[in-house]
Structure formats: C-alpha cells, structure tokens
Amino acid sequence: MKIKLLFAIVLTLALFTTGAAQTxxxxxxxxxxxxxxxxxxxxxxxxxxxxxxxxxxxxxxxxQIDGTTKKPLTTTSRFRIGSITKMFTAAMILQLVEEGKxxxxxxxxxxxxxxxxxxxxxxxxxxxxxxxxxxVKREQSAQGNANTIPVTxxxxxxxxxxxxxxxxxxxxxxxxxxxxxxxxLIIEKVTGKPYGEILQTRITSKIGLADxxxxxxxxxxxxxxxxxxxxxxxGWKPVSETHPSxxxxxxAIVSTPNDxxxxxxxxxxxxxxxxxxxDQMKTIRDGEGxxxxxxxxxxxTFYGHTGGADNYGAWLMYQPxxxxxxxxxxxxxxxxxxxxxxxIMDIYYNKPFQIPTFESIAVSTEVLDKYVGVYxxxxxxxxxxxxxxxxxxxxxxxxxxxxxxxxxxxxDKFKLDNGTAVGIVFEFNAxxxxxxxKRGGGERVFTKEK
Length: 450
What we know:
The protein is of the alpha+beta class. The chain has an eight-stranded antiparallel β-barrel. Strands 2-1-13-12-11-10 form a six-stranded antiparallel β-sheet, with helices on both faces. A three-stranded antiparallel β-sheet has the order 5-9-6. A hairpin with a 7-residue loop joins strand 16 and strand 17 (404-408). It starts with a helix and ends with a strand. 29% of the residues lie in helices and 27% in strands. The chain has two domains: 79-348, DD-peptidase/beta-lactamase superfamily (Beta-lactamase), CATH 3.40.710.10; 365-448, Pab87 octamerisation domain (Lipocalin, Beta Barrel).
C-alpha cells in the first residue's frame, strides 16, 4: 500500500513538473530575428530571463553605420530606453516615501509652488499620470530642431510653470512626461544631489547594473552606445537624436536588455522598494500604474513599461507568477515593436506563430502610374503627394522633407510600417481618383487633384 502511495506521489510530481516546464524554441526565435534582420525590419537586442537566469539573448543589426563601415550590435550594446526611465524615477520616489522624506499625499506646492495647481496636485497623482500637468515643449528654434539643443533644469521648470493644466487633478488620466520631470526635480531637491548620482547610489550600484546610467550628452559609440536609424526600403539612414537633457527623468536613461531584466527582477524581488510599494506601482487606474503599466500576451498579465524617442524603442515586462522577465531594446523601429513582442511571446509559450515573410506584392508600373498624383481632402488642410520611382510607389506626407516608399500588399493596397503599434495603410481606387489612408481603426478619404 505504501509503495503504491509513494508511486502515485512520484507520478503526480512528475506529471506536474512536465506540465509546468517551458521548453524554449531557441531555433524559432533565431529564425524570427534572422528574418527581421534579413528584411531590414528591425535592429536591436533581446533578453529573456527566467527566475533571474538568462535563457535567451540575441542582437541583430548595427550600432553604427558609416558608409561601408558597420559596427554590429551585440548583447552588451547600450540603448536609450526612453520612458522606461519612469520606472526608475517612480522607484526612487517610493524609496524616499519609505524613508519618510516624501509623502504620497504631499502636494506639489511643498516643492514647486509656482507650478499651476501646485496646491491641489499630489505626488501620487503625478505618479499615476492624474495630475493634469501638460506635456510642454520648447518652441521651434531658429537654430534648427529644438529637440537637439540642450535645455537646463531651470528651463524645464519654467516651461512647466508657463503651461496651462489639462484638467483638474485626479479627474482623469493623461500621460505626462512633464510630470515625471518634476518628480526628478523633487528627487534632486529632497536629496540635494543630481538625479544621475542618485540613480547610481540608490539603484544601479545597489543591484549591479553596470550598463545603466543617465545620458547627459550626445550618443557615444566609443561607450558602446547605439546610434539610431530608419529604413524606408532604401537603406539605413541616421535619425537626429533628441538631447537627453530634454528627456531628463522622464526618458534619458541608457541601458541594456540584460540590465533591464536584472532591474525588473530585483524590483519584483523587493530589492529596490518594499513589496508594499511594489504593489502600489502595480495598482492600475485607467490603464496606468505608478511608473508601471500592464500588458497582456497569450492571456497572461505582465507588468512593466515601454519607451521610445527618435527611432529608439524599448519594452520591459515581467510575469510575476512565472518570474519571467523580457527586455527588448531597438535603435531602429520599422516593424512595430508590439508585433515583435507578440511574436516573441507566442514562440516562448509554444503558441502557433507564423514567421512573417515580409514579401511585397509585385505591382506593374502601369497600375502604379494610375495612383500617382497630389491628393487632398476637405476634412483637413493637408495634401499627400504620391510618386513612382521604378517599381516602387512613394508617399510624401504634409510637411515631410522626403518621400517614403510604400510596400504593396495587394494591387491597390500599400503599407507604411513606421515602428509604432499600428502601421499606416494606403488604399487606392483609380476609377474614383481616391486614396484612403487607414490607421489605428480610423480612415480618411483623399481625392486626386486634377
């Protein structure tokens, strides 16, 4: 009887272990990233870690392209991670809360009374993007692209002070980079030290993130930082970089996927903030947590953040029950990053996933010529110019400096993958001289001018 019972227990454990085991199809992940690289649909780096141990890493593309010289990306290449910075900022604010140096109920006037509505806005509302603080930007400068010109912290604060609130605090949610810049300024005011130094002492050196720091100047390839590029079908072209001083505590951190995976694992292991404060970060209101947001892949809930600036992109997420961390950074968004993450998750969980072919439909030049022209609509004061070069159709959007190639998916349908979650589709009706542009569930009809 005892032998039978023991056998039953062993069998049950064996079955349980088999069911819980996750066999990662490394070969298929490699094939997916090989295809992205082959078709110039992405450049970047991926890390998947389970229980704090890396189970897959891969880098594709280049950190620098200078004529015929190309410096390949590696798994140690460093990227601008954009708004994932907000997770670090929120964590440091919550550390100060734990130390009694800041209260979530503190109103902004305690630190910066000159900000509109400062007496009504709490630290907690800023963390949740419920402050009403608008996203502010400098006006275009005569010196050129305002985003490439450094800005001081006093100038950031002055711009926020001049801004008009979007709404009364806590009445709704609206994503605010400026709110998180204020949180960075609060961290500096409370600690008496620069944000970058506090980041190092409170997080990066504490949990061993050797490749994570606040960017203060232009990208340095000599420091293993990746430049950013775009490809519209005619080769990789450099994209101008936003000066990191403009992004500050809302988006200026540099990191690697390996470091990001370590960070989010340490965060969920309560090594950065307490479990109580982590639960606050995970508490979602109107789709947003405190420096964190939820994602759903293969019917599982992940927590983390996304980031983007110029043509950089980053995605960091964690599945608590499985202790699974996934970090992807890119210096060239072409194929939508969300679609890449979705493919990664389908492969990881052994779900059906067809690796995209990225093959264009061949359309004759005679058909393409029917679509060439200038299109306008009474609904908006904008015009699109459609041209043909060889066997490729090009679209020049309003205000754009150069026309971009369109990829044919049918004889009358073309797409432009712009690296966002939703691509743009151009659909032509030559008989009616019309062009319909579809994006994110919406559409607008343009008519060819005679």
